[in-house]
Design a protein that fits this description.
- The chain has 528 residues and is α/β, with parallel strands linked by helices.
- Helices cover 36% and strands 21% of the residues.
- The structure holds NADP nicotinamide-adenine-dinucleotide phosphate.
């Protein structure tokens, strides 16, 4: 079987020991295998010494140009990458494009952000007098850290997860060791081959670790950045790792999220806004078979609108349920979950939520899907659950703390009040994204203030912009990605803010004239 290789310390390594087999989750056919790689401490040293020096020798503009060229290169390989995502990720063509085009978009986005910056460090804000009347000033500057960026990614976005993190670190001048999730690693491995082709990146700027993380974190240093995306459990293990704690290496966690959509009390059926809500709910539930950290899991609907919304959403989902099957057939609208373990966990999750919900649509045990023999593939059809208004208010209810990572969402009826909506959203204990659908400006203003502390991003949708509105699960390089609490309290992307994860903030404290002179000149490249 084809063995995928890691790229560490400047060489391709097939790995050793027991190999994990990567499969097509629709047909269960084996596709490739990966095995554990060694020499991870040396790989981090190579990143810090060779990669870091090479990256910091380039200006912001030069790093931006390299990213721009990489975006073009990846775009040229798009069809090949889509085919891999369909085969190993269970993605429909649309799902694959969402991941791959999104990834190329972040690379291109940070190419232009870097191209607009200059100097060895970034000047952050205005110089402030140390006290009233003082000639002394404090000026914050941001300089690339001299460690490695360790990127550990989830299975659901092998392209966007890897390249989205890489582009920001590269723009900031920090070399990357990237570890994709094992079950869907074929796409990440192929992208890595493209990225590592001779002449694309400076030596040491990017390394790929396939298979388990092994002892990688035992070699973390104080200038390193660990950026993790995945489950809250693994995130907690990484945050609590003895060496990570001991060195105070910087850590960013992007974890689970029980994202909510809040439908305002003014929304009526028969409007464009109502149609948008139905479309968004269906997209968020079924895109990537619901395996999206930004998927809407809780739909807050005013009691008076519940029946009409339920019927409309069920209509859309039933059409997708009928066309759930092998994504190699373009007429299928939804593919399988990515592994047997994900299917098992999602089915168990539906049972957990079942304790406090009724099932409106979907059979978690369904075994016949389009294009495959009965019982083959890790499929789960779209499942819509519904709670009572009383249960919706109970913070202990499972739909507020158990993320079913599949095509599953719960309707939560509420009284249409801002405080009730905020109470229900807050029961999720921190989310990546929320959506507010309303034309009532006062409701929107009050709800924005009440919801924002619980969210990393809030999508505001109303009748006027319904035609232009994008589903809340779309993440853009200019928009913050990350949420408080359960979502990991991380922050990635967000335009220039995203660079800060890889930069050290230093206060320069000195005379006003001297600081102004120092910072007005083009800063020298730091000595390596
Ligand atoms: P996971 O099981 O936590 O795995 C995530 C990554 O961590 C994988 O690369 C995994 O490697 C690695 N890993 C596992 N144990 C580790 C350890 N002890 N030390 C270092 N690395 C370790 O998560 P997943 O199942 O891939 O992803 C699904 C979850 O990710 C969902 O909960 C979803 O909400 C979340 N997610 C969040 C975001 C976000 O931006 N907030 C985005 C996507 C997904 P192996 O695959 O080799 O085990």
């Amino acid at each position: 079987m084809h063995r995928l290789s890691s790229y560490l310390g400047g060489t391709w390594q097939p790995g050793q020991g027991q190999a994990a087999v990567l499969v097509n989750p629709a047909t269960e056919a084996p596709l490739a295998e990966v095995a554990a790689a060694g020499g991870l401490g040396e790989a981090l040293q190579w990143a810090r010494r060779t990669g870091g020096a090479n990256l910091r020798a380039l200006s912001w503009r030069e790093r931006g140009e390299r990213l721009g060229a990489l975006a073009t290169l990846l775009h040229g390989a798009r069809e090949e990458l889509i085919a891999i995502a369909v085969a190993n990720g269970g993605n429909t063509r649309g799902d694959a494009k969402f991941d791959i085009d999104g990834a190329i978009g972040v690379v291109a986005g940070y190419a232009s952000i870097a191209a607009g910056l200059h100097g060895g460090h970034l000047v952050d804000g205005e110089a402030a007098p140390l006290h009233k009347g003082s000639k002394l000033r404090a000026q914050h500057v941001l300089t690339p850290r001299q460690g490695a960026a360790i990127h550990i990614n989830a299975f659901n976005f092998p392209a966007w997860g890897m390249l989205g993190k890489f582009a920001v670190a590269f723009a900031a001048g920090v070399p990357v060791v990237s570890k994709p999730a094992t079950s869907t690693a074929m796409l990440a491995a192929r992208i890595a081959e493209l990225v590592l082709a001779p002449g694309v990146l400076p030596e040491g700027a990017f390394q790929l670790l396939l298979g388990p993380a092994g002892d990688l974190l035992d070699h973390v240093g104080p200038q390193d950045v660990v950026a993790f995306t995945g489950s809250a459990d693994t995130g907690a293990r990484i945050r609590g790792h003895a060496r990570v704690l001991g060195t105070n290496a910087r850590v960013n966690i992007e974890a689970d999220s029980l994202n909510a959509a809040v439908i305002g009390p003014d929304v009526r059926s028969g409007t464009e806004l109502f149609d948008l809500i139905v479309r968004d709910c269906a997209i968020e539930l079924t895109q990537k078979a619901g395996q999206k950290c930004t998927a809407t899991r809780r739909i807050l609907v005013p009691t008076a609108l519940l029946g009409e919304l339920r019927d409309a959403v069920v209509g859309r989902l039933a059409a997708t349920a009928a066309r759930t099957g092998d994504p190699a057939d373009d007429s299928n609208r939804m593919g399988p979950l990515s592994s047997a373990a994900q299917q098992r966990d999602a089915r168990a999750g539906v049972a957990t939520l079942g304790a406090r919900t009724s099932r409106v649509l979907g059979d978690p045990e369904r075994r016949n899907f389009a294009g495959v023999a009965d019982g083959v593939g890790y499929f789960l059809e779209p499942i819509l659950l519904e709670a009572t208004a009383e249960d919706a208010l109970d913070p202990a209810a499972p739909f507020h703390h158990h993320e079913v990572f599949g095509p599953v969402a719960t309707l939560l009826p509420y009284d249409g009040g801002v405080q009730t909506a905020a109470q229900i959203v807050a029961a999720g204990e921190g989310s990546l994204v929320g959506t507010l659908y309303s034309d009532d400006r006062e409701f929107t203003a009050r709800a924005t203030v009440a919801l924002a502390p619980h969210l990393g991003r809030l999508v505001l949708a109303c009748e006027k912009i319904a035609a232009a509105s994008l589903a809340p699960g779309c993440v853009f390089p200019v928009a913050n990605h990350g949420g408080p609490g359960r979502a990991g309290d991380g922050a990635e992307l967000g335009g220039q803010h995203g660079l800060e994860l890889y930069l050290q903030r230093t206060t320069l404290q000195g005379g006003a004239a001297e600081l102004a002179r120092l910072l007005s000149a083009e800063s020298p490249k730091p000595a390596d």
